[in-house]
Amino acid sequence: MRPGSPTPVNQDGRGSAELIHAGVVVGVGARAGVSADAVLAAVDAVVPAGAVVTGLVTLDRRAAEPGVQQAVAARGWSLAGLAAEELAAVAVPTPSARVAAAVGTPSVAEAAALAGGGDLVVPKTVVGAVTVAVVRR
């Protein structure tokens, strides 16, 4: 504990309550035609308990998908779509040659989440037909 602090502090200097309620951004990769239910189920499956999702980031083509737009509208999240070239410029822990061949970037979910900075708290995780990664900002 920091002297005079009533809240336990973690190694990064943030109080544990702050970590639990930190805003997180979710990067999402999915195939064309993904449903809102699939996106929401994947996000719900991986976002840490108590975290507050503030936005979803994905490939620009997927941001135009009705299922993705319906998912963010249902939860009141912001939505950003990034070009494959922008995503390809982001260093990620688990790039994929298969994804690079399909969409022009070796990562969608992790790169999208990390594009605006932050700490990767959930690396890319596949839930059904959706891949998600979570960053704390």
From TrEMBL:
Residue runs in coiled coils: none
CobE/GbiG C-terminal domain location: 24-134
Pfam families: CbiG_C (PF01890)
InterPro entries: CbiG_hydrolase, CobE/GbiG_C, CobE/GbiG_C_sf
Species of the source: Klenkia terrae
Top-rank lineage group of the source organism: Bacteria
Protein name: Cobalamin biosynthesis protein
